[in-house]
Amino acid sequence: MSQGKYDFDSRIGRTGTGCEKWDDLKINFGREDLMPFWVADMDFRSAPEITEALRERAGFGVFGYPTEQTEKYRTAVANWERRRHGWDVSSDDVGLMPGVVTGISVALCELTAPGDGVVVQPPVYPPFFREIRHNGRRVVENPLRETDRGYVMDLEHLRSVLTPDVKAILLCGPHNPVARVWKHEELRDFGRVCAGRDIVIICDEIHQDIIYSDAKHIPLSLACPEPEVRVVTLVAPSKTFNIAGLRASAWIARDAEIHRRLRSAFRRFHLSGINMFGLVALEAAYNRGEPWLDALMEYLEKNRDMTEQFLASRLPGVKLKHPEGTYVFWLDFRDYGLTRKELTDALTNRARVAMTDGAPFGQGGEGFARLNIGCPRSQLEEGLERLADTFGKL
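Above: the chain's sequence. Below: its structure in token form.
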């Protein structure tokens, strides 16, 4: 059901709107007659407070260069972190940028050198690997450990790979795709391993607001405030409010030298600004969008619970570690003994659902597929029924 004045139940026809999730099925999956559960955006209209702000700005009719006086937008980011996550951030610590992946690339270029090692914790968001390699750095893997209670960081292994030529770590929290929300003590232990080394932690916290009631997001810099733990935090309203197409994100660095170098790098690459509508959306989201987000999280949590119950009762061969955050879930099909090609064929050509192949997420990803539950419940139910019809016969 809908949550108060916000409607999350209505299906929205997105085909033909220039939307990657729906319009690029043929390119990515070879056919168009699929239900899309792949790209990490939601099939919900964004908060009406954002739409109204954009409509008002569009009605003005003049679209010249946006201001470089960004204090009110950076303040909106800082206030959100303080209010929503208890992290006391100054607006002076905040910079604006077009996207979180952009932030990863710029930070790698500025804070590491060609040939340096950069740690990732697979299975993890595939662009982590791509940006490291595209920028001439070296991928160093510190795989997550799979346990009965979910995935955990392997800190003993991390110590073993932190050789002097490793200069950065890409941390994902909440983690995409395993849906872990790192606990305070886990982050503290991680920070102790990294403290005092010549390492910068580039922390992707883009999913920080998609947290279920049985978990709590702790920003890494809040858990590890010591100056010897050097952190760049990347955040955005894009996943939270379903506005990824507006290219509005922010970076936060409290270390003065790191902040100075990043600010210089973003300006040097002409990436220190956001388009006019992105600025409007960011401010509206962080200043007025909280009631919509609260309603969204109630709806998503019911989607999560329904997914877990459906798999347990109808598809026990598909395993899912209890998701604590994000709306992209890591489904384990390994019990079926299928090759990567066979699993892809079963999902795409038999179940006719578009899910993200697990193999590109790195070590530990083969045999998995990522499911996006950010959609009307009837749509999710239909997709799960398609999976049951197909895998129930295998």
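Residues 20-46+290-391 form a domain with the Aspartate Aminotransferase, domain 1 fold (CATH 3.90.1150.10).
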